[in-house]
Design brief:
Helices cover 75% and strands 0% of the residues. The protein has 427 residues and is mainly α. It folds into 2 domains: 185 residues, Growth Hormone, Chain: A (Up-down Bundle); 194 residues, Growth Hormone, Chain: A.
Length: 427
């Protein structure tokens, strides 16, 4: 069982600083997913409100470079956190993202809007490679903290369209950018103040070894390379499912959903939302398990189960399909706390931000290939059966690769011996 690593005793002020750091990390997870998911709804409002007479097809490609930078800029962001400061980079994240949102709100040309959206992507790239190691360093129960943090990210995804749509309809599309941007700037200012007054913490690196283990240099190389392959497989599975599910539900459940929700996209969209809500909740369970059981077993087991479940998805219909899709999403998100803890174990402290940056390059970089594969299979077969079989193969590959991860070692940090009794005065 994984237990929190022994660490030097902390003062009450230091413990409060660690808790405050986790609060800022969780708030940041809401903002990154809010900002990176809300533009498509805002673009629809911009078209309806006549911004420069641009159409939705004209507006959506403006996010292209920004979306690419969310992945590509992750490694430089992690490297900067390693060389400078985690709390400093998080302040840059909040202030930069807020400023980019303000720039979009006041854009009066296509070029200005493109620059603002590109800046949103650039500053969004800071979050994952910087904040996830920050969570681990500041958390006593790492798995639980990572699972909880993941829920906040899913909240950001879930509220993005609603926030953008309500603000656009009640005020204007500019308010849909401006209100979240001002809130993000306010959080950034608060973090700067807390950093200067010592109310947030960089965290204790001793906790990053996960379970008190000290990986050898050989284990680090082996572990990281295996994880890189597993993370690529997981990214492809997740991105392919995310791309295919709305159309899959329309194809297989169209008549049933029309009876419940009417015609249009509402029915498939509601089923997709249900799938990912379940997935976000199960991330808490994954974090709970990661604190109590060997990480390798949890991680490898999730891929093996995923391979079996997506085969069932490929051949299912009716509302059983929704349940199986939710189970697939749950297996993807539930494995993330264990994955992050394993990555922390198999990366050296001085390059940890860079290692997490590499993870998110792999996670986001798989999206174009997964989306192309889903579109190609749908176009050539009219269905997604082959796509889910391909996902099953990826699950098997990741399972076999995961078996090569170094075994969990017993903790190498031992409690300090009790102090020797003080000499007694001679009688």
């Amino acid at each position: 069982m994984n237990q929190p690593s022994p660490a030097a005793s902390l003062t009450p002020a230091e413990e409060r600083a660690e808790r405050t750091s986790l609060v800022f990390a969780n708030i940041g997870h809401v903002f990154i997913h809010l900002f990176t998911a809300m533009y498509f709804t805002i673009a629809l409002a911009m078209e309806q409100q006549g911004f420069l007479q641009l159409t939705y097809a004209d507006l959506t490609p403006l996010w292209g470079l920004g979306a690419l930078l969310v992945g590509l800029a992750a490694m430089p962001a992690g490297w900067l956190a390693d060389r400078w400061s985690t709390t400093g980079m998080m302040a840059v994240f909040f202030l930069g993202l807020g400023a980019a949102g303000v720039a979009c709100a006041f854009a009066d040309s296509k070029t200005m809007l493109w620059l603002g959206l590109t800046a949103i992507g650039l500053f969004s790239a800071i979050y994952h490679p910087v904040a996830i190691p920050w969570v681990v360093r500041n958390a006593k129960q790492r798995g639980k903290a990572l699972g909880f943090n993941g829920v906040f990210g899913n909240i950001g995804v879930g509220v993005a369209a609603a926030v953008a749509g309500v603000l656009s309809d009640l005020i204007s599309w500019r308010a849909a950018f401006l209100v979240p941007a001002v809130l993000c700037l306010a959080v950034g200012v608060a973090l700067v103040w807390c950093r200067r007054s010592g109310k947030v913490s960089e965290g204790q690196d001793a906790r990053m070894s996960s379970g008190g283990t000290a990986a050898t240099k050989g284990d680090m190389w082996r572990g990281f390379l295996v994880l890189a392959l597993c993370m690529t497989c997981m990214g492809l599975i997740f991105q392919a499912a995310q791309s295919a599910l709305p159309k899959l539900f329309e194809i297989r459940l169209g008549e049933s959903l029309a009876g419940l929700f009417g015609s249009g996209a509402s029915g498939p969209a509601a089923m997709v939302a249900l799938v990912y809500i379940v997935g976000s909740i199960v991330q808490l369970v994954g974090g709970h398990l990661a604190d109590r059981y060997p990480l390798k077993r949890i991680y490898v087991g999730s891929f093996l189960a995923q391979a079996l479940v997506v085969v069932l998805v490929a051949n299912s219909g009716s509302f059983l399909l929704v349940g199986l899709a939710a189970l697939s999403a749950a297996l993807s998100t539930g494995a993330l706390p264990a994955e992050n803890m394993l990555l922390a174990r198999f990366s050296p402290a001085k390059h940890r931000g860079l290692a997490f940056g590499a993870k998110y390059v792999l996670a986001f970089g798989t999206a174009p290939l997964a989306i192309w594969a889903a579109a190609h299979i749908l176009e050539t077969t009219g269905e997604y059966v082959r796509l889910f079989y391909a996902m099953a193969i990826l699950g098997v590959v990741a399972t076999l690769a995961g078996l090569l991860l170094p075994a969990d070692r017993k903790a190498e940090l031992v409690p300090a011996p009790p102090p020797e009794p003080a000499p007694q005065a001679a009688e």
